[in-house]
Amino acid sequence: MPDSKPLPRRGLGRRPSITREDLIAAAMALLGPNRSVSTLGLREVTREAGIAPNSFYRHFRDIDELAVTLIERAGTSLRTVIGQARHRATSGRSVVRSSVEAFFDRLRADDKFLHLLLREGLAGSDAYKHAVDAQLRFFEEELREDLVRLAETTGTPLHAPDLVARAITRLVFAVGASAMDLPPERDAGQIDELTTMVKMIVIGARGISAKAAATPRPA
């Protein structure tokens, strides 16, 4: 994950050169827990990065392109964390709980990328909401593949795995968006509840599949 700490300010003049990653780090350094990416200004970001405003355009068309890049980076970062949690889970430990715990760990680890993803999905501009939605669809597709693979391994067919993946993804992100503003002391209870809700979705989809298989088809 790129370092989002503030870039060192130069005592004299501006930086002679800068990379795309430097601008991303500068923008992330300006974001706080209650600040939307939509409030970032081009001059503010370039001042933080220590370059002239015109140099910004060597890397991004405008501030909106930078903001969408931040959202995409946030999605990639979180998918990596959650994917690692799913793959670390063993038969003796719930894949669902491991994934939910990993999500909350990032939520409380001052992960600005995750906070950005959750907030822009709720309060961002239409362009930013579309960018967040695209990231959520990536989550859904990866989860769908895992659900199908698990169903084949366990021999328990799942009804409409694409809808199951969508329901789980949207539920987790909705709970996460609310949890950001709640004290960490409530995390344990929310993890328990969210784990149970996700399992209910999966069990329900298995039940629908089993019922469909048991229902005689018209001759």
Overview features:
219 residues; mainly alpha; 8 helices; Homeodomain-like_sf; DNA-binding; HTH_TetR; HTH-type transcriptional repressor FabR
General description of the model:
Residues 17-78 form the HTH tetR-type domain. InterPro entries: Homeodomain-like_sf, HTH_TetR, HTH_transcr_repressor_FabR. Pfam families: TetR_N (PF00440). Residues 41-60 bind DNA. Keywords: DNA-binding. Helix 3 packs across helix 4 and helix 3 (63-88) packs parallel to helix 6 (126-154). This protein has helices at residues 20-30, 42-49, 63-88, 95-108, 112-123, 126-154, 161-179, 187-214. It starts with 19 loop residues before the first helix and ends in a 5-residue tail after the last helix. Mean pLDDT is 83; it is low at 1-12. 67% of the residues lie in helices and 0% in strands. The longest helix is centred in the middle third of the chain and has 29 residues, at 126-154. It is built from eight helices and no strands. It is mostly helical and 219 residues long.
The total count of helices amounts to 8
**Which H/E pattern describes the elements?**
HHHHHHHH
Major sheet summary line: none
Rg from Cα: 21 Å
Estimate percent helicity: 55-70%
The general outline is elongated
Measured by DSSP, the beta-strand proportion falls in: under 5%
Overall average pLDDT:
83
Quaternary form: single chain
Structural class assignment: mainly alpha
| Termini Cα gap | 58 Å
Strand elements, count = 0
The stretches of 5 or more residues where confidence is low (pLDDT under 50) are 1-12
